[in-house]
Amino acid sequence: MKGLEGRAAIVTGAGQGLGRGITERLIAEGCRVLAVDVRPDGLSSLRGAEILVQDSTADDAPATILEACRKSFTTLDILVNNVGLGNAPALHDTTDEIYDRYLDVNLRAMFRLSRDALPMLFESRGNIVNIASSIGLSGYMGFGAYTAAKAGVIGVTRQMASAYGPRGVRVNAVAPGVIRTPGTEDRLHTARFKALVVATMPLGMTGEPEDVASAVAFLASQDARLVTGQVLAVDGGQTSSVFVSEEMIAAWVATQTE
């Protein structure tokens, strides 16, 4: 990708899954990366990154993360807001405490860090890539608070792109569909999941963290210099397909066992 060599980046939630894949790809592209995660075990095995053990939802998180970036790199060119919490219950089973937790991790942390990073990004004419979700683009049967938070990520992405484009800052989002990570591994191969999710995808397959990392690298690079306010779905075409009812799922599963 053009223009990534030597650039300074922050990746939150960098210790495993999507964040790890994104971090490794940016390093491979020549970026200097500050990898942030609340869990030290995942960070300790990263090679080529500066690491910071930090809870992105803590009150002092933006100040701590940005100060670590200044200390390591003096500048900031790319901010990847990846930290997230999935597998939320249905809306009718969502207590106020659950709602607050999902919005805190998935939306508030992104909002606060992006806001406080703006002075550094104005100076570098840098960019932000937020990790949203295909579920934030379309309705889904469960995941009430998660859906609300990821839809919020998309809204903030578009608002920031409009507001700060004149200052030279691009803001985009990647909306992953089903990606193989530690959080999804246990259900990827069940009959119900294949019927409910995989069979509704035009490409008929789930993704890998590297698929999301490639999209992030593109949006962060100079190859995307005219791209801002966009949400790139990396979902096998899932959000382009129609709703599939439980009855349709049952019929599909029945045909596979006959």
Automatic annotation (TrEMBL):
Cited Gene3D superfamilies: NAD(P)-binding Rossmann-like Domain (3.40.50.720)
Entry EC number(s):
1.1.1.-
* Top-rank taxon, per record: Bacteria
Q: What molecular functions are annotated in GO for this chain?
A: oxidoreductase activity
**Keyword annotations from UniProtKB, A to Z:** Oxidoreductase
Q: Which family does it belong to?
A: Belongs to the short-chain dehydrogenases/reductases (SDR) family.
What is this protein identified as? Answer: SDR family NAD(P)-dependent oxidoreductase
Which organism is this protein's natural source? Seohaeicola nanhaiensis
Q: What is the lineage of its organism?
A: Bacteria, Pseudomonadati, Pseudomonadota, Alphaproteobacteria, Rhodobacterales
